[in-house]
Amino acid sequence: MNESANVRARERNVIHDVHERRPPPSLARHVVCTWIQAVSPRSTAFTHRKAPNGSVEIVCVPGSMPRVLGPQTGPVEHALAPGTTILGVRLRPEAASSVLGMPAPRLRDLAVDADELWGDRAHALQELVGSASSERQAASHLERAVAERLAGAPAPDPVVAQAVLPLMSGRRADVASLASTLCISERQLRRRFESAIGLTPKTLHRILRFQRFLALAWIRAQPSTQVAQLAVEAGYADQAHLSREAARLEGRSPRNFLSESELRCGCGHDHSASYAPLLRHRV
Do 257 and 197 have their domain in common? Predict the structure, then answer.
């Protein structure tokens, strides 16, 4: 059996599920979704590679200390053993500094234990998640922890929140015109983005455009056979442009990781909460 066949065989033995849910109305201004990823005890171990999404996430394996995943600029890999469950809360990009209580750039491309940031409250959250009677209850504990962090915290920067919306469309980022529309300078827009999100407007645009590509692929049957069309619909100049960005943000060619996804789950995982906002915007 050649290496390609070995890879296909391993992927067919990966059994895992991803489910997202929208946040409660009280958190909708700050949270994209809450997600649960569960690897079946009958599955083989596998490495999960995750492209950046422009957001800060609070992630927890029940029984372990929650971790804060800062805004990423490249792919992150996690080795997941059979029987592993991971859950997390994904913040809206502009809400990062409000929830963290610190400038988001300090955590760019980092993952830190929550107790390094929040002390005893992180230990209390660890105990709550570990003692939860179900995965959904554990996820609710994470949501409540975010709500507690927001009590008395400043609201997200309204200019940044307004600027993020057009970046979801996939159109070529024109920071000059975006700044002009918001009646501020390019320099000020960049400064406010970096403070609130930890990323520049152009970097966030690149990440959201790639997430839009993933969202469009998610609603297609056999997306690995439609890469060129998906590239244009997502806002790329052509398939070569997409391939260059995929190498930077996902670490592989689009056809490669889409084929892997089809083998694992036929794109049947539930990403509706995080992908829906991207699918509402048309190029």
Answer: yes
> What DSSP designation does 43 have?
S
CATH assignment of the domain containing 180? 1.10.10.60
- Pair of tokens at residue 204: 């966030």
Q: Which of 127, 119, 4, 116 is CA-nearest to residue 68?
A: 116
Compute the Cα dihedral for 224, 228, 231, 232 and give only its sign.
Answer: negative
Q: Are 181 and 175 in contact (CB under 8 A)?
A: no
Instruction: With beta carbons less than 8 A apart as the criterion, state whether 16 and 264 touch.
Output: yes
Q: Render pLDDT for 153-170 as a digit per residue (tens, 0 to 9).
A: 889 999 999 999 888 876
Task: State CA 276 to chain mean position distance.
Answer: 13
Decide which of 150, 174, 197 is a domain's last residue: 150
Strands (E), the chain: 16-21, 31-39, 46-50, 57-60, 67-69, 76-80, 85-91, 111-113
Q: 156 in a domain, yes or no? A: no
Each residue of 101-148: pLDDT tens digit?
898 999 999 999 999 999 999 999 999 999 999 999 999 999 999 999
Question: Which distant-in-sequence residues (6+ apart) come within 8 Å of 142 by Cβ?
Answer: 34, 58, 60, 66, 87, 88, 89, 125, 129
Domain match, 122 and 182 both: no
Residues 59 and 7 in one domain: yes
Owning domain of residue 217: 162-279
Range 193-224 burial, b when 16+ CB lie within 10 A, else e = bbebbbbbbebbbbbbbbbbbbbbbbeeeebb
Closest CA to 196 of 282, 105, 81: 105
Determine how many CB atoms are found less than 10 A away from the CB of residue 72. Answer: 24
Q: How far apart are alpha carbons 34 and 275 in whole angstroms?
A: 13
